[in-house]
Design brief:
The chain is mainly alpha-helical. The protein contains twelve helices and four strands, in the order E-H-E-H-E-E-H-H-H-H-H-H-H-H-H-H. It has a four-stranded mixed sheet, with helices on both faces. The longest helix is centred in the middle third of the chain and has 25 residues. The radius of gyration is 19 Å and the shape is globular.
């Protein structure tokens, strides 16, 4: 099912009247281009990425920002991971800044209303902001990461440009069909599937989400086992690896307990996925650049999900959010 175009449900009400969780479609869908004459041309110090450390969708964008070496080109602003009735806030907790460094805002909603005073919808992250036009460029993570892959390449050293990567970059033309097909079912049943489980409000809605979730994890495990590759599509990291990582790094420590995705665990039941996950997290080489570990913040991840399901107690475990690379 495609995301709904708009929603009037309260911020902390995640399921709709049918007891299912339906993700709302992003509204701002403009594009940054390497073309200097574009409406949003790639420029240093012009754009700002707004995130919090708990959200996997925001994590995608922050991860690619680091993978591509865009830290000195795109400013990063971090909010608290605890979702409130007023949306995301600046609290100086959980990695959050005290306030928006551009405008002094204390709530992320204020940025949305600055972009559009008539805005109706949810105040989501990631949010890509244009300081020059003072508006939101895009708030759809899948599109933001695609922009980051290549739009700023002319501002980067040669070795960080997509044309210099041996595998053809994160979204190589030779694999685009395969990547898009995988992304489609992984998004529905895994990336979004864990939310369907966690935010379901009756047994039927939960069952309808949890079975496809683990069927898809089984499918991913089989894919890696049969191919024998380091990453999902070979020996180079692609768009599919990035999108899956930010879900699976949260799985054992958050989704298993907090979202009731407890039929299996990555570390015990999926040896190939587990090795793939640990390689991305622990290895610091030309492919990973240490970005997977650097952008993963386990404390805010766990606390954010506890607050999202309106619990008050943060689980003590697991002892190791991710196991060492040489174990199991």
């Amino acid at each position: 099912m495609a995301p709904r175009a708009e929603s009037d449900r309260p911020i902390l009400k995640h399921a709709d009247e049918d007891s299912d969780f339906h993700r709302v479609a992003s509204k701002f869908r403009d594009w940054i281009s390497s073309d200097p004459s574009a409406s949003f041309p790639a420029e240093k110090d012009r754009y700002v990425l707004y995130i919090n450390y708990g959200c996997p969708w925001a994590h995608r964008a922050n991860l690619v920002r680091s993978l591509k070496g865009l830290e000195d080109i795109i400013q990063l602003v971090v909010m608290d991971c605890e979702l409130t009735e007023e949306g995301w806030l600046y609290t100086a907790k959980n990695g959050s800044m005290e306030k928006d460094p551009l405008y002094g805002f204390t709530k992320h909603s204020q940025l949305y209303f600055k972009a559009d005073p008539e805005y109706r919808g949810r105040y989501t992250v990631p949010t890509l902001w244009d300081k020059k036009k003072e508006t939101i460029v895009n708030n759809e993570s899948s599109e933001i990461i695609r922009m980051f892959y290549s739009a700023f390449d002319d501002l980067l050293p040669e070795n960080l440009r997509e044309t210099s990567k041996p595998g053809g970059g994160y979204y190589p033309k030779t694999l685009q069909k395969d990547i898009d097909e995988m992304n489609e079912w992984v998004y529905d049943s895994v990336n979004n599937g864990v939310y369907k489980c966690g935010f379901a409000t009756n047994q039927k809605a939960y069952d309808n989400a949890v079975v496809p979730l683990f069927d898809s994890l089984d499918r991913l495990e089989k894919h890696l086992a049969e191919r024998g590759d380091t990453y999902l599509w070979g020996e180079h990291i692609t768009d599919s690896d990035i999108r899956l990582y930010t879900t699976l790094i949260r799985f054992d420590m958050a989704y298993v307990t907090i979202f009731k995705c407890n039929y299996k665990q990555i570390r015990y039941d999926y040896p190939h996925l587990h090795k793939w996950l640990r390689r991305l997290y622990w290895e610091a080489n030309e492919k990973t650049r240490g970005a997977f570990k650097e952008t993963t913040h386990f404390g805010p991840i766990k606390k954010g999900y506890v607050m999202a399901v309106k619990q008050k107690i943060v689980p003590y475990g697991p002892k190791n959010p991710i196991l060492p690379l040489d174990e199991l």
